[in-house]
Amino acid sequence: MESKSSEAADVSPEVEVEMLKQRLADEEKRNAELLTRLKYMQADLENYRKRVDKEMKEAGESIAKALVARLLVVQDELDLAAKHAEGGNGGRELKEGIGMVRKNLESALDSVGVERIEAVGKPFDPALHEAVAKVQGRSSKGDMVVEEIRPGFTFRGQLLRPSMVKVELASKPPKEEKEVE
Fold it and tell me: pLDDT tens digit string along 81-121?
């Protein structure tokens, strides 16, 4: 014990103040490093939250898209049943019942962001339409959709299913026809 007190006595107040200043500077530096690490960890946590939110939203969209695709098959079958009811002995009640179910289904699909692609009378667009039949036309305006075989749909702006269509091909001037041959 005597040696410690003699060591403390040997240290001058100026040296002790310098040692304390150095310790304070070291602690301030350590504190700044810990604060920087904390800020990085907070940023990482925020990025993680955003990524998880985005993945959850995408998963929800994927599930909704799969459900809508299955519902469209039901709508196709209802359309087919309605056509048969009109042409045969289906009865007025059957026709009205199918019409009500179809209307409710269309309303449900509309409410989640499903939109029907308008095709008939529009220019053929391979991004939205699938040509299943072609007929030669007389117009030179371009390839036009003349009949819709199966309707196409978009889901919140993205193509869900292309329209199956019959396309009237634009007539080509004789010069172009010779080049093609």
Answer: 777 776 666 577 777 777 788 888 888 888 888 888 888 88
Task: Give CA–CA dist 153/67, Å, rounded.
Answer: 13
| Cβ pair 71, 116 in contact under 8 A | no
* Residues in contact with 112: Cβ distance below 8 Å, sequence separation at least 6, in sequence order: 64, 68, 155
Q: Where are the beta strands (DSSP E) in the chain?
A: 114-116, 129-136, 144-150, 153-155, 158-161, 163-169
Contact 165, 129 (CB under 8 A): yes
Enumerate domains of the chain plus CATH numbers.
1-112 (no CATH), 116-181 (2.30.22.10)
**Hey, how many other C-beta atoms are within 10 angstroms of the C-beta on 111?**
8
Lateral strand order in the sheet of 129-136 = 129-136, 163-169, 144-150
**Does the global pTM surpass 0.70?**
no
- The CA-CA-CA angle for residues 142, 167, 147, to 5°, reads 125
Q: Is the dihedral of CA 75, 80, 85, 90 positive or negative?
A: negative
Contact 100, 130 (CB under 8 A): no
Sheet holding 158-161, edge to edge: 114-116, 153-155, 158-161
